[in-house]
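Kindly inspect this one:
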Amino acid sequence: MAGFPLAFAQPFLLLGLLSLPVLWWLLRVMPPRPRRVEFPPTRLLFDIAPKEETPSRTPWWLTLLRLAAAALVIMAAAGPIWNPQTGLAGSSAPLVILLDDGWSAAASWDSRIRAADELITNADNNQRGVTLVPLSEPARDITLMPAGTARVALRQLAPKPYSIERVETLPALERFLKATGDAEITWLSDGVDTGRGPEFIEALGKIIGDRSLTLYEGGTAPPLALVAAENAAAKMTVKVLRTGGGVAAGVVRAIDQKGSPIGEASYGFAPGDREAEASFDLPVELRNDISRLEVAGERSAGAVQLLDKRWRRRAIGIVSGSTSDTAQPLLASTFYLTRALAPFADVRLGERGSPQQAITQFLDQKLPMIVLADVGTLSPEIRERIGAWIEQGGVLVRFAGPRLAQADDDLVPVKLRRGGRSLGGSLTWEKPQHLASFAADGPFAGLVVPKDITITRQVLAEPNAALATRSWASLEDGTPLVTGEHRGKGVVSLFHVSADMRWSDLPMSGSFVEMLRRIVDVSGYTSTPGAGVAGEAGIETVAPLRTLDGFGAFGPPPSTAKPLRADFRDRATPDHPPGLYGPADGPLAVNALAAADRIASLDTASLRAQRASYTNAEPRDLRGILLASSLALFLIDAVIVALLGAGIAALLRRRAVPAAMAFALALSTVVATSMATSRPARADTTDEFAIKAVSQTRLAYVVTGNADVDSIVKAGLSGLTLFLAQRTALEAGDPVGIDPARDELAFFPMIYWPVLPGAVKPAQDAINRIDAYMKQGGTVLFDTRDAIEAPPGADGASQTPGMLALRSILSSLDVPELEPVPREHVLTKTFYLLRDFPGRFTSGQTWVETLPREEEDEAASRPARGGDGVSPLIITSNDLAGAWALRPDGQPMLPLTPGEPRQREFAFRAGVNIVMYTLTGNYKADQVHAPALIERLGQ
């Protein structure tokens, strides 16, 4: 039957269907209708309700059922066959089979082979020669062969893993047809146009001329393909392509190098769309492990996307040593670094906790690259872990700053001079420098040297023989801007300027982005490597390692596969089949389709051809099914007749069947389980502490374990709290004693830490928590309480037992550069105007974070310092808490030395200034509103 996969072995028997009207008439007239006879006594029976009724004639629907059963018997006798073998018969001309055998034919390859085998079988029955023409092999010789030889050659064919160029086969086909003359041509098409499809259709029509052409298309699901995989910041995406209709949704699987599944992503096509997207929302570590994407259930090389190191997105940790800049975060170093690295890396900020905690976290996460922005002192344990991490292949990038300028460690590529070098200030003859050159053998080789970058401050390297070889970028005066060296499998590099705008305008330039990209490219983890990293002197080639066959399975490379360039990014070709090339530890992936390729349906409407479709099953005899169906209909007819004749009803009445069968409905008992879980009866200690700390502004002190010292400190802070309530608007709560290793510190604006001589150094975890507290804007007031014990001499104050214990504590903290409180410091004028900060003693100095000097003060461009201008730590030895301590009757607890008349009053005032300083920051130093206020006063 034309266009329908059904045929009959004895079609003339279908004439029996013409007898169905006669059968209808016979069923309607037999049995004959009953005769009506008048019998008067019958009226006595009219009032009796009949229990059984017999129809006077056969219902029409029962007659139709019997006719259907008879029709099935007639059709079964005709020998129906589903999916009969197709092929040309009754011709002696040779058969030419054109076979699409690219990746797009792989998914339905069995159907094509079966169709070709049927054609060869029919040709064999007619004693005709056969020619097989795979359209992927233009150089193949086209010759006639017996059907048996053609069948063997057909079994040896396999789909190719790349797109075929049908046009290249036409010259050989034209020569064969001219030499052969008459021929019957059959094209087993895959229906996909991967390029030059209209050109092939037009040329094929001209070459065939008046010869017979049969085109096989349809009957199989259209192929699917994957292209344009992208590992973006939040997820990995890949595009799924189709030619038209077909499967509207599916799943894409992600597989690692060992063949283990990593994840799945669904996709769906909108009506009429030929492109969909699948997204993998996975952590970047898992996404970097993906080496293969494939469409589930699709067996073709086009439905596979291989990924190499170019698709890996490198995770980079950024740690800043400066105080959290909440006032102006857009001017912080982390802002510039994040914006520069985000386009090609997954950036993670160590915002919470101390720098050492953030570094430990990143090392535990095995990040391949860490950036330290102005991180100074590190504990020996952290330095040792970072060193081992670098030896194993980690990349450490450091940026200078005030803290690094005062630090001294070996995690830099060159030895540094302490302090910084200022250029262009009022106290220096040197002018700001510009970038001069990039080292030819460094990662920045090939970059254009920008002329608009100005350097105003830098850290200098100690001159030595290795300095020239480790300089990656230099200034006009020859001093290095960026240095670096390889250590083991890793790299250590240093930018001798800060990562923000304080020391240079490098972070604002496009060169900053490209320089960071080049450093990331050293390890080869980015998807878009910059030019010049691998060197441009020669072209590196890589040999095939493993290749895909047409079905998307890995296998050894064929003998025809050739090496390709290491920067190859095009689609696969016969010389370069899809697969992996190069070394096993870092191969290059080649795919059947390039990122910009798209597929479309092949338009064959202009061809003058007979159309046929691929069959999805073997020929099947339907006689058994039809006979079984007719028997079922006859059984249904017998049951209906028995029901209409009341035979079954009489049988049921003989049985003592209960009038109603009770079906117990087992209703699911709804267990009254309380969904709301009860809260613990006892109040959690941590919650009580938090509630107490946040209910009011409170001052805190570190509990030392010495009962006398702790009682004095608590009494001192209580006295200061009372003084604050009497003299200011601040009504603080009672002071709280804390343990830095256990309690949350963020609740308190200031922590008073009395330092005991010979005290055991706190655990590193407590030090890290204190460091994080200071980085996030908190202030710690260290009081050694031993100013009177300082020996004579310039360095006497630093040799006291309390000061030595403090040095032990600060040795593991990233402490900024300190200085005695200058006269213009905001701490001297936050509430009272003070010149010094006395306590029980007056001879000790008070130290705070160093203020920017006039030549480096960026007040014009940056009015707020990190942490709102509050020093993260204050150091004194004047025993402030001893001067503030009061007995319950309001009298001083301890005497003063030397005991000046107003010494205790000034000690309280110093405490007020310190508390107001920690609460209001640089408010008093802010001169932004001064012109407007003066103008208003003038009015």
In short: Residues 524-538, 654-683, 855-866 have pLDDT under 50 and may be disordered.
